[in-house]
Amino acid sequence: MSDDSRPSPATARAEARTAVVIPAAGRGVRLGPGAPKALRALNGTPMLIHAVRAMAASRAVSLVVVVAPPDGAAEVKSLLDAHALPERTDFLVVPGGAERQDSVKLGLDALPPDYDIVLVHDAARPLVPVDTVDAVIEAVRDGAPAVVPALPLADTVKEVEPASAAGDPEPVVATPERARLRAVQTPQGFDRATLVRAHETITDNVTDDASMVEQLGLTVVVVPGHEEAFKVTRPLDLVLAEAVLARRRLNDGF
Ligand SMILES: Nc1ccn([C@@H]2O[C@H](COP(=O)(O)OP(=O)(O)OP(=O)(O)O)[C@@H](O)[C@H]2O)c(=O)n1
Ligand SMILES: C[C@](O)(CO)[C@H](O)COP(=O)(O)O
Where is this site: Transition state stabilizer (predicted)? Predict the structure, then answer.
């Protein structure tokens, strides 16, 4: 092939195939005793299935890799088989690891070669709207190495000196300027090679993938997040998630 017939990097990125890695291997300790969080039901359907459908709702997504609880891959495969999912999307299931970061890495390792854009989406954010997913993909296609959806904060944030004993008062150290702060959600989107390099290079335990890319010295950009992309973390979040689903059913005229 002559150089002239090769697509430009911008064209190649615009046409790149997109895969999503869904880390779903967490226990959900903060949600209280029960099945692993991703397998718990929201309105009768496992949270993971809601999250998978939210990702597969994007026509740009052609592969979803679910990272299952370490001993739950067979159960997750059966769940995917038992629920209606778009036929245009392929699905893979791999067992996860001890920390979120390990689970994402195991999902990345399972990706076939022909995907150049990768999204990482928490199973614990089952209700993210498709417009948010598409906005993240578009920003990566436009050339950003890493993209996060995020929202401005509703509360003022204080930096404190953490108490040495539980229940002790904590002195405030600083009040960061709220207008410059954002609460970060998922799906986070990446140029695949960048995310792979981040996971190979950064060994500190971090809570999100974009911060690993920041540590490489690259710019991470923010697109608008959505209030329905909240993370189901504590019991009250389950109540909120079911209320959002009930509102959607009403709006859809069911
Ligand atoms: N070893 C782990 C830990 C977390 N996750 C996933 O990472 C996402 C975000 O994590 P979080 O909501 O904190 O889930 P848990 O770790 O399950 O929650 P907790 O800290 O309350 O146990 C979830 O979809 C979770 O399943 C994962 O795949 N592998
Ligand atoms: C990736 C994440 O959802 C972005 O908000 C978040 O950092 C996950 O953190 P957690 O400690 O696993 O809840």
Answer: 30, 37
Spell out the domain ranges in the chain: 9-150+183-251
Distance from Cα 189 to the centre of ligand 2, integer Å: 14
The amino acid sitting at 127 is L
| Closest CA relative to residue 27, chosen from 106, 99, 104, 91 | 99
Q: How far is the CA of 7 from the centre of ligand 2 (A)?
A: 36
**Residue 13: predicted pLDDT:** 72
- Residue 213's CB is within 10 A of a number of other CB atoms, namely 26
110-137 confidence digits (pLDDT tens): 999 999 999 999 999 999 999 999 999 9
Residue 182 CB–ligand 2 contact under 6 Å:
no
Over 70: is that where the pLDDT of 173 sits? yes
Mutate to test the pocket of ligand 1, among 37, 105, 188 (most ligand atoms within 8 A of CB): 37
Query: By percentage, how much of the chain surpasses pLDDT 90?
Result: 91
Fold observed for domain 9-150+183-251: Spore Coat Polysaccharide Biosynthesis Protein SpsA; Chain A (3.90.550)
Question: Is residue 83 within 6 Å of ligand 2 at its C-beta?
Answer: no
DSSP alpha helix (H) spans, the chain: 9-14, 47-56, 73-82, 100-109, 130-141, 192-201, 209-215, 235-251
Q: What CA–CA distance (Å, rounded) separates 237 from 233?
A: 6
What does the pLDDT look like over 193-236, one tens digit per residue? 999 999 999 988 899 999 999 999 999 999 999 999 999 999 99
Ligand 1 touching residue 72 (CB < 6 A): no
Residue 208 CA to ligand 2 centre (angstroms): 6
What pTM was estimated for this model as a whole? 0.95
Q: What residue type is 212 in one-letter code? A: M
